[in-house]
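Researcher: Please translate sequence to structure tokens.
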Amino acid sequence: MRTPVIPQQHNAERAVIAAILKKDGMLMDLAIAAGLNVNSFNDPAFARIFAGMLQVAKEGGRCDLVTLGTRLPDDAVLLAELHEAIASTVNFDDWTRQLRQAEAARMVRRAALRFSESAGELPPAQTAGEIAKLAEAIGEAGRIMGGNQTRSLREIGKAFADNIHCEAETIPYFPALTEGAEALRHHRREMHVICANTGCGKTCLAAGAVREQLKAGLNVAYFCTESESEAIFARIVAQFSGVSHFITQQKNPDRVRVDRFANSMQQVLENHAKQLFIRGCETRQNTPEAIRAEVKRIIHTVGHLDVIVIDFLQFMQPPPFLRSKSKLEQVDYCVESLHGIFNEFNAAGIVLAQINREGQRFDGMPGLEHIKDSSFIAQLAHTVSFLHRDQKSPTSTGKTRFYSRKTRNQNPFALELTWNGAGYDSEPLYNSEGL
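Model: Translation complete:
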């Protein structure tokens, strides 16, 4: 009888761990971007070491020999050997690809063995369920190995024909029957970049959009590179309550407004805890690779994500191999990576961005040439819009313009928004005055 062979790439597993150690953790972002996880390693010792590396990276530490030796004292000798095990890391991408392919093969093998061991003893209904699990494992393995990246022309044509008479699902930003709800047409896999001066309220605009998305039953992940998770949560609660989040910082706040804010907070926690995922700056998930890994983890938990918010672009961090490059190259890398993430996970992307100094001094309405530190936004984004307020107008009474400078798959728009003390309101689509 033939001895079962477990798919594995022992040499590649050893090389990946050694390469990360040799570069003092600088390759960890690339490993995460490639989708490596503990299950990618069949050798228990390598899986244990990589789990430690993931934890160190999550905490913002360096995956070097000293840090990991302290964290994993039982593996100190093996770590020292691995640190000197390779002379070059040039084949790192090939090694990670080999590990992912072996992981996919093991996944299918486990599912097939589970099915073969139980199929004969199960009633038909449960057998069908096991077949579905096996098919799911094969599909996931295909995605890992890149089998879902290409389609035949017939498949593409059929998908297009199926959608001819179907209106694509749009991602809401404003309440129904408002000018904003009518004007914006944001779909899955599309990137909408919203640009504004610091302090113009782009985070509040995004938080208001998240409110409408949660009400519509969508799952939303909000990544903030500037503020902590609590601050973003407070801004979203403010959109539900109509009370500014600053009320929590006042010495003698109005009791009625505080109660309204607290009640809205409780409602958000009760109604949307399984839909909303906030990752503030304290989580250090501010690189494209870390965001991709966290999105994948969330999807594994809840099944899917509908919207991913990035607040904001210019504070994202590049991987180590780009940190000696110009800011323009770093930001463009982040833009291209985010574009790929939105496509890969079938999610709508909202990216907040700053405008440059010239745009801040510009006597007029900023345009694409005023986006800070990026040339790829104008190329890759489906919609680029600007939030602009005349600095001479008081925030409490002045109108703020929200307008597009690039649109794809929707018409250009130009809206006037009103600040309500906590966020932005769009004008009603129909005027009921006099009825």
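Researcher: Any highlights?
Model: The two ends are 86 Å apart (CA to CA).
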